[in-house]
Amino acid sequence: MLNLAVLVSGRGSNLQAIIDRIESGNLDAKISVVVSNVADAYGLVRAKSHGIPTRFLSLRDYPDRREYDGALARLIEKFHPDLIVLAGYMLVLTPAFLDVFPQRVINIHPALLPSFPGTHAQKQALDYGVKVSGCTVHFVDAGTDTGPIIAQRVVPVFDDDTEDILAARILEQEHDIFATVIQWIAQGKVEIKGRKVFVKE
Ligand code: GRF
């Protein structure tokens, strides 16, 4: 069983999708802790209501991001996770964290990377005028949404889409693909070779 630590900054609907997949018996994983940089993140409420331990780590208690990420790594190490899942975590992790967990951190991004990294990805896609967008699950490196891509889902973009409508269409796919990728990792199917990720049958 894959031991997960999940990082959230907000509403936590992707966290919920992972919890639901575990509780339905379709994901061989356990969430040992949910950590947030935001005290009132709704994701923490969701975790608590499923009996999952939660922690809040305030940026204000540390002089800089290096110190903060070091403390975050020490906190998370105590739970011995096999995989760290960024589910709407809005800070870019630094090497002070990532070097502790090489190739063990994954993120979901609401666009087809490498297009539209960073914040407001759905608005970036609409403003650019693309005809398809989607979501990407990738390993995390020190860049912003630049790590090796594990899986992507495509959705259409329609002329009358608003940012909210497109975000909702993408989110439905996020909820499925994120838990699916975690299950692939739990089954040992995912292999990274340099920039490329291979998923075994
Ligand atoms: C999702 O769109 C995810 O792709 C992005 O942040 C959003 C988080 O949503 N990284 P939620 O907190 O999981 O509901």
Summarize, please.
With 201 residues, the chain is α/β, with parallel strands linked by helices. It has helices at residues 13-23, 42-49, 65-77, 95-98, 121-128, 163-186, and strands at residues 2-8, 29-36, 54-56, 83-86, 105-109, 132-139, 149-156, 190-193, 196-199. It has 6 helices and 9 strands.
Itemize the secondary structure elements and their pairings.
Elements: E1 2-8, H1 13-23, E2 29-36, H2 42-49, E3 54-56, H3 65-77, E4 83-86, H4 95-98, E5 105-109, H5 121-128, E6 132-139, E7 149-156, H6 163-186, E8 190-193, E9 196-199
Parallel strand pairs: 1-2, 1-4, 2-3, 4-5
Antiparallel strand pairs: 5-6, 6-7, 8-9
Model description:
There is one protein chain. The protein is α/β, with parallel strands linked by helices and 201 residues long. The chain is 34% helix and 25% strand. It contains six helices and nine strands, in the order βαβαβαβαβαββαββ. A seven-stranded mixed β-sheet has the order 3-2-1-4-5-6-7. A two-stranded antiparallel ribbon has the order 8-9. β1 (2-8), α1 and β2 (29-36) form a beta-alpha-beta unit. The mean pLDDT is 98. The protein binds 5-O-phosphono-beta-D-ribofuranosylamine. 5-O-phosphono-beta-D-ribofuranosylamine binds at residues 8, 10-14, 87-88, 108-110, 171, 174.
